[in-house]
Amino acid sequence: MSNSNSTVPSIVNKLARAELVDMLPYESARRLHAGNGEFNNKIWLNANEAAGLGNYEISADCINRYPDFQPDSLINAYSEYSQQPKSNILATRGADEGIELIIRTFCKAYEDNILICPPTYGMYAISAENHGAGIVKVPLQSETGINELDINALKQQVGNAKVVFLCSPGNPTGNLLPHAQIKEVLELFKDTAMVVVDEAYIEFSADKSVASWLPQYDNLIVLRTLSKAFALAGLRCGFTLANSDVIAMLSKVIAPYPISAPVAEIASKALKGDNLTVMTERVKSTNTLAKELSTWLKAQQWCTQVFPTDANFVLFKTPHKAFVFEALLAENILIRDQSKQPQLADCLRISIGSKSELASLKQVIETAFSNLKS
Questions:
Q1: pLDDT tens readout for residues 252-263
Q2: What's phi and psi for 230, nearest 5 deg?
Q3: Are 240 and 89 spatial neighbours (Cβ–Cβ below 8 Å)?
Q4: Is 295 helix (H, G, I), strand (E, B) or coil?
Q5: Contact 161, 113 (CB under 8 A)
Q6: Closest CA to 250 of 77, 68, 65, 95
Q7: What is the β-pairing status of strands 113-116 and 347-351?
Q8: Omega of the bond prior to 71 within 30 degrees of 0, cis?
């Protein structure tokens, strides 16, 4: 047996599923810069995280015991927050686990497809590939931006997918999808596919959630997370909202102890009382900073397009993409290059950090272009 880490042992290539050998993993913001220094040495504006540190305390009680499958305190707290009955809620390890569970539950490997509308969140496709599900793509469209569904093209795919993923607000585009179009998709696929509306960023446009539609549509599933507005990305806690029959089915597929006791304790506290007020104030501040950043970008000669946003990030286009990205990287400010996404050539995405972090970003870019001219 070889102890070398430089090559993959032949037995692995021999036994692993063939399609995994050349498959690229999802490049998360953290994975892209792994090993490039400590957190404190950089300004992280590439992962749509909240700025600042939280203040949390946990109890050591029952750490020696396995946690409840779905901790009562957490489900009760999210039920009250979301205004959904407890039977409509499944707590997961981030919304990403919800994506995986849905595909594993409704798609037969090497037989069924999911449908996505790129540019969109990359984990839908990665999770489908990992499971052996096919991927049907119906790109977003619009003359004024990439912010609408192509309903005519979607009609052609009825019966060709078991799960339809809609991201609203979208990532990396940042915009909400029109409610009328989401309803049209739910009706189109009502007998043939589950329609998943990913609301990871919905707190930044809270009145636009479609969760209240669950009693009307048996094929609707809503994904949520505490990673964004609640500033708990490191906790990895998400929720799948659906009718009780869907939740019961997903519960057959999920791991036996998906939510650790410390996660349940912190998350339950974050969903109550003063902590909800803190979240609401964070959302207001973030939305204000997003508008200010969009206004600033629109005023820059090097910026050719700023996409409308209903989330905690701003997507923009510049022919100087590489110059802007590298100038920021040289000063340890990390943003996200989205130019590999379809329809997003020359596009970069900036997460809304703190006011001081965004001020530093603007200063670095302004100085870089000033030096370029001199």
A1: 999 999 999 999
A2: -85, -5
A3: yes
A4: helix
A5: yes
A6: 95
A7: unpaired
A8: no
